[in-house]
Design brief:
CATH class: Alpha Beta
CATH superfamily: Response regulator
Structural class: alpha/beta
Number of domains: 1
CATH topology: Rossmann fold
Largest sheet: 5 strands, parallel
CATH architecture: 3-Layer(aba) Sandwich
Distance between the termini: 17 Å
Shape: globular
Order of helices and strands: EHEHEHEHEHH
Helix content: 25-40%
Length: 143
């Protein structure tokens, strides 16, 4: 990467759930470069355990995963009082008309399409996070 990544997520805890190794590596690397403490899961069941254990600031979750997909993970989070307000951003290669609306209806905060673009990912993510009132105050956006 040509530019220095601002430490906008310094001290934040994040869970990233994705069964695609490349996406998991790219997301983790960029989040860590932005200062986040990242926990990785390769399916929704692992993610659910990490979320309950670590109480992250937000979650990035692929929608299509083995054992428990992102849709079921979101359902589980929505039925638990301790995680119902947890911001979850979907990672998906399915960027068709109506997908964003379907994800929002299911409880996702928003979504980012894959493959992840290392040059744009952090900017996209910060733009989505500032739309969450509880997280906007925590972000220290560096110009």
């Amino acid at each position: 990467m040509k530019t220095k990544i601002p430490q906008v997520l310094q001290g934040w805890s994040v869970v990233v759930a994705d069964d695609e190794e490349d996406s998991l590596i790219v997301a983790t690397m960029l989040l860590e470069m932005a200062g986040a403490d990242v926990r990785q899961a390769r399916n929704g069941r692992e993610a659910l355990g990490l979320i309950r254990q670590s109480r992250p600031h937000f979650v990035l979750s692929d929608l299509s995963m083995p054992e428990m997909d992102g849709w079921l993970l979101m359902h589980e989070l929505n039925t638990d009082r301790s995680t119902i307000d947890l911001p979850v951003i979907a990672l998906t290669a399915h960027a068709m008309s109506g997908d964003r609306e379907r994800a929002i209806e299911a409880g996702f905060t928003n979504y980012i399409t894959k493959p992840l673009d290392p040059e744009k990912f952090l900017g996209q993510l910060v733009n989505l996070l500032v739309a969450v009132p509880e997280l906007e105050a925590l972000l220290q956006v560096v110009n």
